[in-house]
């Protein structure tokens, strides 16, 4: 995540996609709270039949860049229901 000062200059860069931050997510959090904690998701998928919206972020699980996705599952009213982790095809650990 990038932090800019009032002058528009970059002040800090912080890696927010960490196991510690993922563990801070709790059911009932809003999309806004989730985005403030983890930043902009890599992708957003909407499943109308469920109904569910899933936000996903690429992250380096165990040092393998882009090998995993962390997923936040939101209900139709925009509340976090659960989280999950999935492997990225072709990026399996050796």
Automatic annotation (TrEMBL):
Domain Outer membrane protein assembly factor BamE span(s) in chain numbering: 16-45
GO cellular component, as recorded: outer membrane
Pfam families: BamE
Keywords: Membrane, Signal
Entry protein name: Outer membrane protein assembly factor BamE domain-containing protein
Organism: Trinickia caryophylli
Higher taxonomy: Bacteria, Pseudomonadati, Pseudomonadota, Betaproteobacteria, Burkholderiales
